[in-house]
Amino acid sequence: MRVALVAPFVAAIDERRSQIGGAQAVIADLARGLASRGHDVTLLAPRGSRVSGVEVVDLGIDADPRAVFGRGAEPASQREAFGAVGAWLAAHPKDAVHAHAFDAPAFDCVRGARVVHTLHLPPVDPAVVAAARAATAMLATVSESCRRAWTDAGARVDELLPNGIDLAAVPIGRGEGGYLAFAGRMSAEKDPVAACRVARALGLPLRLAGPIYDDRYFRTEVEPQLGPDVAYVGALDRTALWALLGAASATLLPVRWDEPFGMVALESLAVGTPVVAYARGGLVDVVRDGRSGVLVAPDDEKAFADGVRRSRDLHREDCRADASRYDLARMLDVHEALYRRLS
Fold this sequence. Notes:
Helices cover 38% and strands 15% of the residues. The chain is of the alpha/beta class. The chain folds into 2 domains: 2-164 and 328-342, 3-Layer(aba) Sandwich (Rossmann fold); 167-325, Rossmann fold (3-Layer(aba) Sandwich). The longest helix has 17 residues, at 75-91. The chain is globular and about 60 Å long.
């Protein structure tokens, strides 16, 4: 089967480096996994992208990190980029086209009976919400929570395509590091600062990992929190991230938004580390409260700290078992079945 995957143009998808977000890592795994099953996979992504075993088409489009959540990205540049994608696809027909972009012009420029758009983010951008409502192609998203949010926003979501992880590639950790961990973009909606407050309230060291998405936020909010007990270790590749999470006693996710899925939570469970999080968005689907983590009422930091204490009684084997619900093989099976229906 000939499959084209259209990536967001927020960042290059280069498997040799850390990714700006979970969606980029998932797209790389999807592309590589489909190719390993014998499919002819083409990835249309920003310049500098690289995924082994996959044809990556360079349309001369540079990454624009401002495009996430529509922060400052120019609509004209977005339309030009996705216009080029649409033109390329028209000249190179595929059995199925799977678009993952979160930019309003993508829905108009990439369309047709063999097209599906996955909504990797909740309905936070009015322009994207309007484009999704008007879309003629099939729409999908990654969690029941995200599907409900989009349905409430007036978009017709036809398919549920949960993310996955290659469990066989992820070593289980022992939690021997004596620290708490936070992983995610350094941005307000992920709220690493709340993780710092919670760790200090408990008298426990904390390690922060993730790309600096919002320079001003990092400089004014995160940097003042750093010290002997709170260390920022930077943006890590997946092997290093798994090692960091695997040695942690718990992963803290005090998110201030409805997480569409929660790849960091899944990666933490995969290495055997329980997750403590606010009960928001897809985290409710990924984390089993009282078994592989503790979910507490949003924005209640006292309850969150209590949740960290309670997480000490959870078993790493149960975390790993819960992660198996989202094994990469299952993700590939669901996608293959959809592509067959499209073709």
